[in-house]
Amino acid sequence: MFPAAATGFSTGFSLILAIGAQNAFVLRQGLIRKHVFWLCLLCAVSDAILIAAGVLGFAAIVQQWPLLPQIMRWGGAAFLLVYGAQRLWAAYKGQYHLQLSGHSAGLWATLATAAAFTWLNPHVYLDTLGLIGAVSTQYHMNFERHAFGIGAITSSFVFFFGLGYGARLLAPIMQSARAWQVLDVIIGLVMWALAVMLLL
Predict the structure, then answer these.
(1) Domains: count for the chain
(2) Is pTM, for the whole model, over 0.85?
(3) Domain of 6, in residue numbers
């Protein structure tokens, strides 16, 4: 069972490691140290639900609704374009006194944004329902497949809580409006690049 769990952990961790919209949002919240626990918990639990669904064969349901990937793709792209524009506009305005004082949106607004990044991102379905689900099929014994799924789920918890709470290590270099400006430009451009990739 341990080899299966280790494979699940490494597979899940490698897929989630890439800088994406969700990760950038968690990093940003981690820097201002607001709602970090609940945000990381939401992201990790969302991943856990999707990974469990993939391992249990939920991907077959997606095949019954061929328009679902298209709907998710357009919805995700629209959301990324809007959020990217917000970050670029914030960088243009350069007013970061609230961030420098640790101000953040409310808990529910923060969680709603994170949920949108998670559930409106077609790539998360490809990674969890598709790739992780496909890799899990190499295990014919149920307990090995479950161990693989547990390993992949564990990687999500380790990654998100590590990113959220580890972001404070960058706090010393984020003490100026210019640093936040650069971060927002990077995040905005990443969001737009991801949106374009979804539309291509």
Answers:
(1) 1
(2) no
(3) 2-199
